Amino acid sequence: MGLKIQTIARTSPLFQAVLELAKGNAKTLGFLPKGAFEDLADKGYVLGAVFDGKNLAGYLLYRKTRSEISITHLCVDDLCRREGIARTLVDHLKDATKDAFGIGLWCRRDYAASKVWGKLGFYAIDEREGRGKDRSVLEHWWFDHNHQTLFTYALKGKREREIPVVIDACVFFSLLDESDANHHEAAALFADWLSGIIDVYVTKEIYRDIQRSQDETRRKKERSHAKGMLLPPGDLNVNGLNTELKSTFPDITKESDLSDLHHLAYAISYGVHYFVT
After folding, report:
1. Which residue, 144, 161, 186, sits at the end of a domain?
2. What confidence tens digit (pLDDT) does each residue in 199-242 have?
3. For the whole model, what pTM was predicted?
4. Do both 163 and 74 map to the same domain?
5. Cα distances (angstroms) measured from residue 47 to each of 51, 76, 170, 181, 233
């Protein structure tokens, strides 16, 4: 029968397997009372990755908050890791929640799992200090379903008057750092004479560039600026464009260079004709 993603009810024999898997990974997942599991199961918010209809390989708990989805737990059995179980669970959730604005979660920055979310299409858009004794940094990871918003329509109107321009990470960082050798050149994009002629944006790939920094103060400053320059949601074909760009530049393997291609793919998908690097 292979692997199947299914909703696990409280009455399912697999529900106990979910509780046991959660207990075995409580050190990283944190404590969640049995009653919370039961409540989520009753609402249909427990997904299980099941082999041959009886063996639990992993599970995903989530909640609905207004028009957003929040992941509570994503856990895969040790014996089933590196088999794509986490991606399969998350992809199923994405398909099942397309009417929501997006999917979010908080994860400790120092956990190995924090490196997984970016690979699953999420972006670290914010962070805060944790409540534990060690006050470890928690990052807010977000996957956007790219629904049209009022801001989207406002941008379409602006395009008739101003030329949208997307900048890459290097230009963005130079813009914020006055000590950078390229700061004045980057700042020239905001010269008075260009007001009303061009409008400068970044793509959400910038969050991935920011997340790689080890400087917490710098990350917060950069995210704050990025939010005010971010392209609005829209209908995107980024994955297809990324594949095409990678085939054009097969020698690019460095993470930061791959991010540059992602920036370019987003710009193309929005129909932006000017990409500044």
Report:
1. 144
2. 899 999 999 999 999 999 999 999 999 998 988 765 567 778 88
3. 0.73
4. no
5. 13, 12, 40, 51, 27
